[in-house]
Automatic annotation (TrEMBL), chain A:
Segments forming domain Aldehyde ferredoxin oxidoreductase N-terminal: 4-207
Gene Ontology molecular function: 4 iron, 4 sulfur cluster binding; electron transfer activity; metal ion binding; oxidoreductase activity, acting on the aldehyde or oxo group of donors, iron-sulfur protein as acceptor
Keywords from the UniProt entry: 4Fe-4S, Iron, Iron-sulfur, Metal-binding, Oxidoreductase
Cofactor: [4Fe-4S] cluster; tungstopterin
Taxonomy, superkingdom: Bacteria
Residue ranges the record marks as coiled coil: none
Similarity section: Belongs to the AOR/FOR family.
Protein name (database record): Aldehyde ferredoxin oxidoreductase family protein
From TrEMBL, chain B:
Name of the molecule in the record: 4Fe-4S dicluster domain-containing protein
Ranges for domain 4Fe-4S ferredoxin-type: 1-30, 44-69, 72-102
Species per Swiss-Prot/TrEMBL record: Candidatus Thalassospirochaeta sargassi
InterPro entries: 4Fe4S_Fe-S-bd, 4Fe4S_Fe_S_CS, RnfB_subfamily
CDD domains from the UniProt entry: DMSOR_beta_like
Sorted UniProt keywords: 4Fe-4S, Electron transport, Iron, Iron-sulfur, Metal-binding, Transport
Pfam name, any one: Fer4
Example GO molecular function: metal ion binding
Coiled-coil positions: none
Gene3D superfamilies tied to this protein: 3.30.70.20
C-alpha cells in the first residue's frame, strides 16, 4: 500500500476518447511526480519541435506522491506543456486545494492532447470523466467561470482550473486561475488550453489516499514540521506572506524599479509587507499547509488574495507605481483575465521605457497605473495596441528595438530580483529550463539576504546547480517552495508515503535527472547556450544606489561563471548535457538515442 | 463536550479533516472527516464556518433502533445495532453526521484525544468545557 493512486487519465479532445492506464512504476521511481512525472509524460510522445498550439502538444496535470496526505505544503498541482512564449518545456504549479482534489479522483496525472471541436470543459470526478460543452462560458473571466461551473455542477466543493479571455485569445503569457486567486502563472499554459478549446477543468474527488506507513508518517511529519517551523505563527512568511520581501529587496538595492532601470524605489514603503497587512481581511492557507502564507486583502474597491511579491514588483515598482490599491487592482484584473502578472507587468514596463526613450510611442508612461491596468484588458482581448503587447517583451523589442531593456530570458519576463544585486540569480535565470524564472533556484536567500558575498561568481555555478537539483526533486515530490526542506527529510517523507529507500543522495540525483530531462527537451527543441543570456542592461548599466551601487556585472565574468556552471553539470561548452551524463543519471535509452540525433 | 472554534484563526488548510480521517479510517480523505471547515470566497469576501457535533443528542432521540447513546462527553454509535437507515443524518441540525459503509458516523473526540486539535497548526480548535465535566 502506498500513496500512489495508480492511474493516469488520458484524454484526446480531438476524437473524445478517454482512457485510464496504469501509472508506470518505473516512471515514479525515476521522476516521482508533479514536475518530474509531467516532464516524463510530455517527453513520451511530444516532439520537442512541435508547435505549442498544435493538437499534438499536451497539457499534463500531475499530482504528487505526497499530495492529499497530511504532509504539510504537499498538495500542489503541476501542469506541464511546451510553452508558446518561450518555446521551451514549461511547468507551473498552483497551490490551493485543486491538487489534492485531483488526487482524490484517483489519478496521478491527466494527459490531455488534441483539440475539441467547440469550446469545452473537462469534468473529472472519481466516478466519471466527461468532455462537456462550454459554450456558456465563452469569453468569461476566470472568477465567473469558477462560479458558473459550481452552479452548473451543483457542488460548492468543485475545484476549477479556468482560463480567461487571455487564454481563449491565445495570449502567450496567459495563466490558469483556480479558486479565484490561485494562479498557475508562467509560460502561457492557458493559451495552450485555449488552443485546445479547453476553457476549464472541473474536478471533484472523494477517494481515500493511503500511505506506506501511516503511524510512522504521522509521527515524523509532525516532528519535522515543528522542527522546521512550518507550523508556527511567529514567522514572517505567515505574518506577511511573500510581500515581506519588498523591504529585503529595497535594502539590498535590487528591487526592480522603472523596468529595472533602478534597484531602489522611493515609494517602496507604500507597497511593502506592512502596507498590505494593514488592509488584510483574512489569512488563507493551501490544502494541508501549516504555514498559510496567503492573505486576502481589500483596499477601496480592489481586493485580491495576495498580492504576492512578484506581482507587487512587476505590477508596482517596476511600473513606477507606488499605489497599494492600484497594485491590488492590477493583480486582481490579471487573475480574472487570466494573465501572468509577471509577464504582463514586464511587457508593459518595456513599453513604458520604449516610450520614455522615444524608441516607440506606446502611449504609456511610468507611474501611470490606470493606463497599465487598462492595457491588461487590451492585451487579453488583443484589442488595438493590446495585440502588439500580447506578443511579450522579447517579440516587441525585436520589432521596435530596445532589446537590452526587454527584461526577459528566452522570452519569459524576469521576476522581481535584479541580478546585479545578487549575482547568482543571473545564473539561475538563464539556466532555468522554462526561461527567466526564480523557482529553479533561489540563491538570493544565501547571497543578498544571507551570508554569501552577492558580488562574486566564485563557487556560484556549483551553488546554483546544487540548489536546482534539490529544488527539482522537491517540486517533483510535491513540497511547496516555502518549506525549506532538506533532501534527507524529503526522502524520508517519500519513504513513509510511497515506500522504498530514498536517502538524500537519491533525492538529489532524482532532481538532477529531472533537470537534465527538461534540458534535453530544450536542446532537442533547438536551444543551446546561445539562448542562456541576460538582457544587455544588466551587463552595460550600473545601478546607482544601495549595496550594488557602481559594481559592474560584466558579460565576461558572467560567461566565465556559466562555463563553470556547465562544467559542474557535466554539460559541454555549448550547454548541452553529455551523453555520458545522461547515462549516468539513468535517463531512459530511447530518449538518449533521440537526443543523439540533434548533437 | 463539543469542539469549539476560533474561526478568526482558521486558514482553511483542512489538516483537521485529514487528521480525523487518519484517526478513524487510517486513510487521508477530508470527505470522511467528522468535522468540516469551510473557508471559501463568496460575494462578500471569505466565508469561514465550521460544522461539528454540538452534542445536542437529537440523533440519539430519533434513532429507531437505539444504536446511538452518549457518555456525557461524546456520542457513541453501536455499529452492530445501526441499520444504516440515515434517520440521524436527516435530523442532524449541523448536517455533520454521515454514513460510512452504511453505518452512522459521528465525532467521538477520538476517544478523548481529538486529533483535529492536535493537528491544527493555528490553534483554532479546542474543547468547550461544560460545568462539572472535565476532558
Amino acid at each position: 500500500m502506498n500513496s500512489l493512486m495508480g492511474k493516469i487519465l488520458k484524454v484526446n479532445l480531438s476524437n473524445g476518447s478517454i482512457s485510464r492506464n496504469d501509472t508506470p512504476t518505473e516512471w515514479v521511481e525515476l521522476y516521482t511526480g508533479q514536475k518530474g512525472l509531467g516532464s516524463r509524460i510530455l517527453m513520451e510522445d511530444v516532439n520537442p519541435k512541435t508547435d505549442p498550439f498544435s493538437p499534438e502538444n499536451k497539457v499534463v496535470l500531475t499530482t504528487s506522491v505526497m499530495g492529499g496526505t497530511i504532509v504539510s505544503c504537499s498538495s500542489k498541482l503541476a501542469i506541464t506543456t511546451k510553452s508558446p512564449l518561450s518555446g521551451t518545456i514549461t511547468d507551473g504549479s498552483v497551490g490551493g486545494h485543486t491538487g489534492a482534489e485531483l488526487k482524490y479522483t484517483g489519478y496521478d496525472a491527466v494527459d490531455i492532447t488534441g483539440r475539441a471541436g467547440g469550446l469545452s470543459y473537462l469534468y473529472i470526478t472519481d466516478e466519471k470523466v466527461e468532455i462537456r460543452d462550454a459554450a456558456f462560458l465563452k469569453g468569461l473571466g476566470t472568477f465567473d467561470v469558477d462560479a458558473r461551473l459550481k452552479e452548473e455542477v451543483g457542488d460548492e466543493e468543485l475545484k476549477v482550473l479556468a482560463i480567461g479571455p487571455a487564454g481563449e485569445n491565445l495570449v502567450p503569457y496567459s495563466c490558469i486561475s483556480s479558486e479565484k486567486y490561485r494562479q498557475l502563472g508562467r509560460g502561457g499554459i492557458a493559451a495552450v488550453m485555449g488552443s485546445k478549446n479547453l476553457k476549464a477543468i472541473a474536478i471533484r474527488g472523494k477517494l481515500d489516499v493511503s500511505v506506506n506507513d501511516l503511524q510512522g508518517l504521522l509521527k515524523y511529519s509532525k516532528e519535522v514540521t515543528v522542527r522546521d517551523e512550518v507550523i508556527a505563527t511567529d514567522n514572517e512568511i505567515y505574518d506577511l506572506g511573500t510581500s515581506c520581501l519588498v523591504d529585503y529587496s529595497q535594502e539590498s538595492g535590487l528591487l526592480p524599479t522603472n523596468n529595472f532601470q533602478e534597484g531602489t524605489f522611493e515609494e517602496a514603503e507604500k507597497i511593502n509587507g506592512q502596507s498590505f497587512k494593514d488592509v488584510r481581511k483574512n489569512k488563507k492557507g493551501c490544502f494541508s499547509c501549516g504555514i498559510a502564507c496567503g492573505n486576502y486583502v481589500v483596499d477601496g474597491a480592489a481586493s485580491v488574495e495576495g498580492p504576492e511579491y512578484e506581482s507587487i514588483v512587476l505590477g508596482g515598482s517596476s511600473l513606477g507605481v507606488g499605489n497599494r490599491e492600484k497594485v491590488i487592482e492590477f493583480n486582481s484584473v490579471c487573475d480574472d483575465l487570466g494573465l501572468d502578472t509577471i509577464s504582463a507587468g514586464g511587457t508593459i514596463a518595456y513599453m513604458m521605457e520604449a516610450t520614455q526613450k522615444g524608441i516607440h510611442d506606446f502611449g504609456i508612461r511610468f507611474g501611470d497605473a490606470e493606463a497599465a491596468i487598462e492595457m491588461l484588458t487590451k492585451i487579453a482581448y488583443k484589442d488595438g495596441i493590446g495585440a502588439e503587447a500580447a506578443m511579450g517583451s522579447k517579440a516587441l523589442s525585436e520589432k521596435y528595438g530596445g532589446e537590452e531593456f526587454a527584461i526577459q530570458v528566452k522570452g519569459l519576463e524576469l521576476p522581481g530580483y535584479d541580478p546585479r544585486g545578487s549575482w547568482s540569480m543571473g545564473i539561475a535565470y538563464v539556466s532555468a529550463p522554462r526561461g527567466g524564472c526564480h523557482m529553479s533556484a533561489y540563491p538570493i536567500a544565501e547571497e543578498a539576504w544571507g551570508e554569501l558575498d552577492p558580488f562574486t561568481f566564485e563557487g556560484k555555478g556549483k551553488l546554483v546547480a546544487d540548489m536546482q537539483n534539490s529544488q527539482f526533486c522537491k517540486f517533483s515530490m510535491g513540497v511547496c517552495d516555502f518549506w525549506p526542506i532538506d533532501d534527507e527529510t524529503l526522502g524520508r517523507l517519500f519513504e513513509l508515503t510511497y515506500g522504498g529507500e530514498w536517502p538524500a543522495d537519491r533525492v538529489y540525483k532524482t532532481g538532477e535527472r529531472v533537470f537534465n530531462l527538461q534540458r534535453m527537451f530544450n536542446i532537442m527543441a533547438g536551444f543551446d547556450r546561445t539562448e542562456d543570456k541576460l538582457p544587455g542592461r544588466f551587463h552595460k548599466e550600473l545601478l546607482k544606489a544601495g549595496p550594488p551601487k557602481d559594481i559592474a556585472y560584466t558579460k565576461e565574468a558572467f560567461d566565465k561563471a556559466m562555463d563553470e556552471y556547465y562544467a559542474y553539470r557535466g554539460w559541454d561548452e555549448r550547454g548541452r548535457p553529455t551523453v555520458e551524463k545522461l547515462e549516468e543519471l539513468g535517463i531512459e535509452p530511447k530518449f538518449i538515442e533521440a537526443y543523439k540525433t540533434v548533437l | 463536550m463539543p469542539l469549539k472554534f476560533d474561526l478568526s484563526k482558521c486558514t482553511g488548510c483542512k489538516l483537521c479533516q485529514l487528521a480525523c480521517s487518519a484517526s478513524h479510517y487510517q486513510v487521508f480523505n477530508p470527505e470522511k472527516a467528522r468535522l468540516k471547515m469551510i473557508h471559501e470566497y463568496n460575494d462578500d469576501g471569505i466565508r469561514i464556518a465550521s460544522k461539528s457535533c454540538i452534542l445536542c443528542k437529537k440523533c440519539e432521540k430519533v434513532c429507531p433502533v437505539g444504536a446511538i447513546t452518549n457518555n456525557g462527553r461524546w456520542m457513541i454509535v453501536d455499529e452492530d445495532k445501526c441499520i444504516g437507515c440515515g434517520t440521524c443524518v436527516d435530523n442532524c441540525p449541523t448536517r455533520i453526521i454521515f454514513l460510512n459503509n452504511d453505518k452512522s458516523t459521528i465525532c467521538d473526540l477520538c476517544g478523548g484525544d481529538p486529533q483535529c486539535i492536535e493537528w491544527c497548526p493555528k490553534g483554532v480548535i479546542s474543547l468547550r468545557e461544560r460545568k462539572g465535566v472535565k476532558a
